[in-house]
Design brief:
- By secondary structure, this protein is mostly helical.
- It has twelve helices and two strands.
- It starts with 32 loop residues before the first helix and ends with a helix.
Length: 281
């Protein structure tokens, strides 16, 4: 069957990393941005959106007419891939990409760590809330008898005495211990959230790009372009069950063909080497 299975070969997009977004998402690019958008039937802004979405999500963002790529010869596919990835790299290395990435990272990060709460803060707030309630009740004193008013005022004084007890001695020590434990939990939860954010979205957008490039090179290192396909349930599938179980991005590269995939790998290797030469991890 060769290494170009029919267009109906099924594949699903997931969050696995695939750097040559143009292999499917921006197929049909020529050597200029104007030609790219004209062939795809999209604006240059939408093309940049596809590149941005692909990098930050780790999934292919489909934009435009993919059939232009699938209908092209191997040589034209190589030209498309190189032109597309050149366009993608130029956008990623522009001033726009890191700014948008920083906004995206902030929007997906944890809420800021709240300031620590002291025992004085807690006790002062409790007193203030209580006195506000007292003032509200006193406004209703016209509807109570003098004896009821006297009883209420005595109750207010009792509560105030309890506040005074809490502000000193063992009660204050217990409150301070509870607040310290609460703060420890807050800080730990925040640090975990920041680590999780850094793992998904490194502070340096170049590190994200490097991660995507490495994962693409890993997934594309062993494509079996001569694998046999058979028709099952009216769809073309790999005869080898192990290959059929491969992830969608692996199958997508199989469909793109060896010349296009090799071109994408060469581009990714050069890009990654340039980043690593600048100290990007």
């Amino acid at each position: 069957m060769g290494n170009r299975p029919p267009a109906r070969y099924p594949y699903r997009m997931n969050r696995a990393v695939l750097i040559p977004v143009i292999v499917t998402a921006m197929a049909g690019l020529a050597l200029s941005a104007q030609a790219v958008t004209a062939q795809l039937g999209i604006t240059e802004g939408r093309a940049r959106e596809a590149v941005f979405d692909s990098f930050v999500s780790g999934a292919v963002s489909i934009a435009g007419k993919a059939d232009v790529f699938t209908a092209a010869s191997p040589q034209v596919r190589v030209a498309i891939v190189n032109a597309a990835l050149t366009l993608a790299r130029a956008f990623v290395e522009s001033a726009e990409f890191p700014k948008r990435y920083a906004d995206h990272r902030d929007a997906n990060g944890p809420d800021p760590l709240p300031p620590p709460t002291s025992a004085d803060d807690v006790l002062a707030k409790q007193r203030a809330n209580f006195e506000a309630q007292v003032e509200g009740m006193r406004k209703q004193f016209d509807d109570v008898t003098p004896q009821q008013r006297k009883t209420l005022e005595e109750g207010f004084d009792t509560v105030r005495a309890r506040f005074t007890e809490m502000e000193q001695g063992d009660a204050r020590i217990a409150l301070e211990a509870a607040l310290k434990e609460q703060r420890t939990r807050q800080v730990q939860a925040y640090e975990v959230a920041v680590k999780e954010l850094d793992a998904v979205y490194p502070a340096d957008p170049r590190a994200l790009v490097a991660n995507r490039l490495r994962k693409f090179l890993d997934v594309s290192k062993d494509i079996s372009f001569t694998a046999q396909l058979v028709e099952r349930d009216k769809k073309m599938r790999f005869a080898d069950a192990a290959l059929e179980a491969r992830p969608a991005e692996w199958k997508m590269l199989f469909r793109a063909g060896k010349p296009a995939t090799d071109a994408a790998r060469a581009f990714a290797q050069k890009w990654l080497a340039d980043l690593e030469a600048k100290g990007v991890k």
